[in-house]
Amino acid sequence: MEQTQLFQEKAVEDELPLKLELIKQIGWLVRLRWIAIVGVFFTVTVANLAWDMIAQPVPLYIIAGLMVLYNFEPQMYQKAPEQQRLEYIKRQACIHIILDLLSLIALIHFGGGVENPFIFYFVFHLVIASIILSKRVSYILATLNTLLLSSLIFLEYFEILPHNHLNNFLPDENLWRDPHYILGVLFVFTSTLFFSVYLATTITQTAREREAETRELKEHLEEKVYELVETRKELVFERNKLKSIIECMQEGVVFVDSTNESTLFNKAALQIQEEQSDHNMTPNLHFGSTETLAQISREFTEGNEAIERKDQQIGEKHYENTYAAVRDGEDNYLGTVLVSRDVTDRKRMEQQLIFSEKMAAIGELAAGVAHEINNPLDGLLNCILRIQRNPKNIEQTQEYLGLMEEAIRRIEATIGKLLDFSRPHELTLTSVNLNDIVNETIGLIEFGASEKGIQIEKEFPDRISLIHGDKHLLEQVVLNLSLNAITAMPEGGRLQYRTGELILDPFLAQPSVYVKVIDNGIGISETSQDRIFDPFYTTQITEKGTGLGLSVSDRIIRQHHGVIEVESEEGLGSTFTVKLPIAGKQT
């Protein structure tokens, strides 16, 4: 029922323009009829009084009066049912045009018949019919009009109907009986009539088609406008939703257009800006230097990587900045979105992990450290005992005092080295020599390795380029790799250290130095090689292991923009290679 009602309402909406147009045209026809009625009264009166042209004017007045009566009837369409009003209007219009044709025929008959020049007024009614009614009905009315006029003329010609002559109008009083004149008038009248109907219906049909197209375009345009309004509502909703999401984010968000102007930033970004001001830093919504942003924008414009990460420290807080390019459908660069997230807690956790792994490494070095301390302590004790036996021997005392000082300094150096290694360190980059780092590490593990029957070998170049790194953290990396290598050789073996330089490393895409830690131990299976850098993953079964050594080492090396590579085969040993960019040659 609802669907049927919707179709009916749609049909009523579609008919409404036609109803309004028909009502307008019928109103125009009514006004013309009033003019015609007034014209009949005026013409008959003037023609009769001035020239005594019409012998019987009374029928003409009666016909005009009848026209007055039915000219009020078109208002009746307002009483028709809503569903039938359009057809009712058309039917009433057709009836009134037929009445007009009959009235005009009657007027022509009593006003001179074929002699009356007003016979061509039929054209007006048929033009109006062509505008209001269909083409088929228009041609039917034209045919009816032709038959009516032809019947009238021939009935008068054969004197079946009396001929009402117009006095003092035409010099020849017998034209109505002249077949040539009659046929000529009928031919001109018929051709004019049908040609007028053809032109009127053609023009009307074209106009209606154009009107229908215009109405269809209007409806289509209204639909599109409605769709655009709904789309705009959806866009506003999505924009407000996205804006709310961005405002609620704990990360600072900034959009910088292609001219490096900030056009969007959230509350978190403003807080970061305030922190920059509090630490006497130039407030910069770019979360970095203007030069950095310009370089990133230039790389994005050239079609380089879509995302880059930069770290920034403001006071005690650390921020990780992510730069993402925004492009249109044609991949043209529009701007950069910057997301800055507070990673201070993560940095602290990383430092705690590094420190925990460092403490675990110190535990494994305990035997070696004890040896480094016990040996000079034994020597120190022997010197004291010897001095006690012969305290008056000044020369011997002086000699033993020197040896005792040397032993104490050795103990002090060992403890100092251990304390320095065990302290928590933040990332502090300086120029360091990789060979020195490896030698320092060997000094810590040398005794423990020899106790397990492991021979240490070094293969260093005479000169090696400096790297930009943190000495303590890099020592921890080499120590972790060394302790893993020692653990992998429970029956003893050979531990090798090789350092060198690469003119252009294919992975880092720049000059670099490397250190290889090589053992001939049990090796690592292929399945385990993919996971050895995962946190808490360990291949040590009989030995104690936290599973953090390689994970921490990998993180430290990545902080130095380097890489750790591993090559291993079960039963043959492993080779860990640490590659670091040469200081001042980063690309």
Total helices: the number is 15
Question: How many runs of DSSP E, i.e. beta strands?
Answer: 12
Indicate the proportion of strand residues: 15-25%
**Mean of the pLDDT scores?**
75
First-to-last CA distance: 76 Å
The largest sheet, given as strand count, sense and whether it forms a barrel, is:
5 strands, antiparallel
Q: What order do the SSEs take from the amino end to the carboxyl end, as H and E?
A: HHHHHHEEHHEEEHHHEHEEHEEHHEE
How would you sum up this structure, described in words?
- The chain has 15 helices and twelve strands.
- The radius of gyration is 56 Å and the shape is rod-shaped.
- The chain has helices at residues 2-51, 58-70, 85-110, 122-132, 135-157, 179-248, 267-278, 290-301, 344-364, 366-389, 394-422, 434-451, 471-487, 526-529, 549-559; strands at 252-257, 262-265, 307-314, 317-327, 333-342, 430-432, 454-459, 467-469, 493-505, 510-519, 563-569, 573-581.
- By secondary structure, it is an alpha+beta fold.
- The strands form three sheets. It has a five-stranded antiparallel beta sheet, with helices on both faces. It has a five-stranded mixed beta sheet with strand order 7-9-10-12-11.
- β11 and β12 form a beta hairpin.
- The longest helix is centred in the middle third of the chain and has 70 residues, at 179-248.
